[in-house]
Amino acid sequence: MVAVPAGRVALSDRRTERSWTVEVASFRMSAVPVTQGWYARVTGEWPGSARGDRLPVEGVSWWDAVRFCNTLSRAEGLTPAYHLRPEAGMADWDTSADGYRLPTEAEWEHACRAGSTGPRYGRLEEIAWYGGNSDDRIHAVGGKQPNAWGLYDMLGNVWDWCWDLYDAEVYGTYRVLRGGGWSDEHWSCRASVRRRSHPTFRIDDVGFRVVRPDPRQTS
User: Fold this and answer.
1) What is the 3-state secondary structure (H, E, C) of the chain?
2) How many alpha carbons lie under 13 Å from residue 197 in its C-beta half-sphere?
């Protein structure tokens, strides 16, 4: 897990043409997306179409991701972050919990940018697997250059599920995806690009990474 310092990030909504700034507290984030091997060790399952211990897990829904977070938390003796009622389509986040969870959209973008202000934290070819260099396939994590805070594959390879609803007024329960994937064009692999999907959706270019609170804030 990589320590991400506190900061602020500007978010925007194209539909409402609204922009706002979010203060982000310090937290810890997995240096790479959750891999197939890690997911299998925690859940006993190998979802997705490709196989490889160091490949990012894909073919996982938002519900799969939050269940993984709770299972991993319990396995490590931590308090699960989520109270899940999937039969009712409901999930509540216990913000006082010390367990693993998905990043918020603001946390994700703050971590991706790592203090940079441009559309990306480096040259795309050097930091991401995307449609222009992936040979139409997913790649092992950590194969490209990290950002300034030591986070790999924030752009490209697989999209990351985030905690947030995308736009409840229009899209209901759809959740936010960030980062771009191995089959996307260059314009999708930018720090500010948002995508949405239903929380039950599974596809071969969507995965996730996990975060935890900064221990100094929970002690």
Assistant:
1) CEEECCEEEEEEECCCCEEEEEEECCEEECCCCCEHHHHHHHHCCCCCCCCCCCCECCCCCHHHHHHHHHHHHHHCCCCCCEEEEHHHCEEEECCCCCCCECCCHHHHHHHHHCCCCCCCCCCHHHHCCCCCCCCCCCCCCCCCCCCCCCCCCCCCCCEEEEEEECCHHHHCCCEEEECCCCCCCHHHCCCCCEEEECCCCCCCCEECCCEEECHHHHC
2) 20
**Two tokens at 160?**
């990351």
Instruction: Tell me the pLDDT tens digit for each residue of 185-212.
Output: 999 999 999 999 999 999 999 999 999 9
Whole-model pTM: value is: 0.95
Dihedral sign computed on CA atoms, order 99, 102, 103, 109: positive
Q: In the structure encoding, which two tokens stand for residue 60, read together?
A: 């996982």
Terminal-residue alpha carbon distance, the chain: 18
Residue 18 C-alpha from the chain's centroid: 23
Q: Which amino acid is at 18?
A: R
- Contacts of residue 169, Cβ cutoff 8 Å, sequence gap at least 6: none
- Do residues 131 and 185 touch, judged by C-beta distance below 8 A? yes
